[in-house]
Amino acid sequence: MHQIDLSHVKVDSGELETLISLSPLITIVSLQFCYGLEHINFSSTTLTSLCIQNCEDMKSFCFKNLKNLIDLSIKFLDPYLKNLEKQSISSFMKDLHNINRISLGEGYIKGHVARLEPETKLLNELECRSFCHNKLATIEIEVKTPCMHALGLIRFLLANSSSLEILKFKVDPGIDKLDIPLMLSTSQDLSEMERAIPRVHVKFIYPHFIVKRVVPSCTENSSSEEASFLGIKLFIFEENSLYYIPPRWQLCRFQGNQVCNL
Q1: Which of 34, 180, 205, 217 is disulfide-compatible with 170, CB 3.0–4.6 A?
Q2: Backbone angles phi, psi at 115, to 5 degrees
C-alpha cells in the first residue's frame, strides 16, 4: 500500500499508527474531517506527504523518523481547534530534515511563526493562510541577500498591515562581498513600496555599516562627502559606511546585536 486517504470517517489512533508502521511502502497519508483521532505519533521512513485537516477530536500529534517527508499540510478551521494543543513550527520541525513545503492555515498559528530549525535548509515554501497580518505591530525579516521573494513579502506586509509600526529588514551576507548595486536597488524598492499607513518605520539594517541621512543638496558650507546626488537613493560615503536617503525611515546604526538610533 502506497497511500492512505481517509475522509469523514471514525479513526482509532492506535489502529492508524499500526497501519502506517506495517506499510513499508507508504508515501502519502491524508486525514480530512476524521473523528476519533486524539493523539497520534507519525513514524515512517518512506512517507513523503502528510495532510491533517479539520480532525475535530485531535488534541496532539508527534512526528518521529519522517526523514523523507517533503510536504506537510496542517489546516484547522476554528470549530475544530477547541481540543488541539497548538505547537510552534520549530517544535515539530527538528526531525524533518528534508522538508520542502509547509502549509499552515485556518487559525493554526497561535501567535507567530517561530524561527525554523537550522536543519530545514531545503525548505523553499511556507504557506500561512488566514493569519491576522492586520494585527501585526512589529516585523523582523533577516536574509542573506535581498532576494525578490523577501522583497515581495515585505511589499505585501507593508500594503496590507494596517497596524504595523516597525518593519526591520536585515541583510547579513556573512563573509560574502557587499553587492553595492543590489543595495542601491533594494533601498529604492523599499522607499517606493506602498504602505497601508504612512507612519510605519522601515529599518533597513546592514551589519557593520553605519546608516545616516545626508543633506538634500550641496551647499557652500557642506563638504563633498555630505553631498547627495539627485535621483539616487543611496551612495557610499566612506569606507565601512553606507548612506542613504530613505523617506520617513528611522535613522539607526547596527553594532553587533544592537540597533541604535542616531
Answers
A1: 205
A2: -60, 130
Rounded to two decimals, what is the model's pTM?
0.48
Q: Strand pairing partners for 126?
A: 102
What tens digit of pLDDT does each residue of 174-227 get? Answer: 666 667 777 778 888 888 899 988 888 888 876 544 343 333 333 344 333 333
Cell (9 digits) for 78: 476554528
In the three-class reduction of DSSP (H, G, I as helix; E, B as strand; rest coil), residue 43 is classed as: strand
Q: For the segment 84-108, what is each residue's pLDDT rounded down to a tens digit?
A: 665 555 566 666 777 777 776 644 4
Cα–Cα distance measured from residue 78 to residue 54, given in angstroms and rounded to the nearest whole number: 9
The gap between the terminal CA atoms of the chain, to the nearest Å, is 64
What one-letter code names the amino acid at 226?
A: E
Number of neighbours of residue 163 by Cβ within 10 angstroms: 14
CATH class of the structural domain 1-130? alpha beta
Domain boundary assignment for the chain: 1-130, 132-262
